[in-house]
Design a protein that fits this description.
single chain, 328 residues, alpha/beta, Nucleotidyltransferase, domain 5, six-stranded mixed β-sheet, five-stranded mixed β-sheet, 9 helices, globular
Length: 328
């Protein structure tokens, strides 16, 4: 008697093929899945590039636009060639997160405010200056500008790229470090008063206190102020003065104001020529009293006790706009 395989040679030859056919759909699905995983990142990049605002090739305007990001607000200043200044302010300021999407959103808000002030004239690029916040890097700001479709202005001699901190911008916003003929850098170098000087800068807002000692001059943002002694404390923002005993709060503010200058004199004694105040909290009467008390204690380290507080809310944005006008 023949075995089942001998009686059904057709069955034995077809069965494996049927099994392969049954497996084929699963293999195709696997191939499609692998292809999707491989191609998805490339497709995503292409979509994002299409959706992302296009960055202009050059600055198409003579006016300079400056953004200042601090906690909890941001300001915009526009400097025209005829020295006219326009300012505007938004509550949206420097976020706690340095996520590029969030930063880009704030920058787009400030850009829209500037363009509205300009009668809907487009803004191609800007200088952004920021409070001395740890973990905020130039790459974050550059990426945020790219997402917003803006040219990130960073140019010699004002700084070599990177983060432009608000101390430098506030210095310029108070009228210092700016040569009269900014279109001629050789003439700017030869202009009297181009020597450097030491500056103590203090900024107070509802959400942040900063105090920075640095060296400024005609190249007002070089070297970068990030290498100088600085304090940045969100817990000492003006809104925190009622968290506990108010006298303790002001004592901590006074100590924070003193700390950078004490650090600057740790190894060798240096004199400080200017005191800059900025931020919307700098108009607070008690803050001004505490600054006066701190300066009295700092008297041995000061060449002068002059306090410069020109338009404290917009000083940093104005300085950034002056930078932008000079490098665009």
């Amino acid at each position: 008697m023949m075995s089942a395989d001998e009686r059904s040679p057709l069955l034995t030859s077809i069965s494996p093929r049927k099994r392969q056919e049954r497996k084929a759909p699963s293999s195709r699905k696997l191939c499609l899945l692998i292809a999707s995983v491989v191609l998805l990142p490339f497709i995503t990049v292409l979509i994002l590039r299409h959706v992302r605002a296009k960055i202009p090739n050059f600055i198409a305007h003579e006016y300079g636009v400056g953004f200042h990001l601090t906690i909890p607000y941001g300001t915009v200043s526009i400097s025209y060639p005829d020295v006219t200044i326009h300012n505007c302010r938004k509550k949206a300021g420097l976020p706690a997160s340095t996520d590029v999407d969030i930063l880009a959103g704030f920058i787009q808000t400030l850009r829209a405010a500037a363009e509205t002030t300009l009668g809907n004239s487009p803004v191609s690029g800007a200088v952004v200056t920021v409070a001395h916040i740890p973990a905020l890097y130039a790459e974050d700001l550059e990426d945020a500008f790219e997402y917003a479709g803006l040219i990130y202005l960073a140019h010699y001699p004002y700084w070599y790229g990177g983060v432009s901190h608000e101390t430098s911008a506030a210095y310029a916003g108070n009228g210092f470090g700016l040569c009269s003929n900014y279109t001629d850098m050789e003439a700017c170098d030869d202009e009297p008063g181009s020597q450097h000087e030491n500056v103590l800068s203090a900024a107070l807002t509802a959400g942040l206190l900063t105090s920075t000692w640095s060296n400024m001059g005609i190249y007002f943002a070089y070297p970068s102020t990030e290498h100088y002694p600085s304090v940045a404390d969100p817990d000492l923002g003006l809104d925190h003065r009622h968290d506990g005993r108010e006298d303790e709060y002001w004592a901590l503010v006074r100590d924070a104001l003193l700390k950078p200058l004490v650090q600057a004199n740790q190894h060798i004694r240096v004199n400080t020529q200017k005191i800059l105040l900025h931020g919307d909290g700098a108009t607070d009467d008690r803050f001004r009293e505490v600054v006066g008390e701190a300066l009295h204690e700092l008297a041995p380290y000061l060449n002068a006790s002059d306090i410069f507080a020109e338009d404290v809310v917009y000083a940093a944005a104005r300085g950034a706009a002056e930078m932008a006008k000079r490098v665009s």
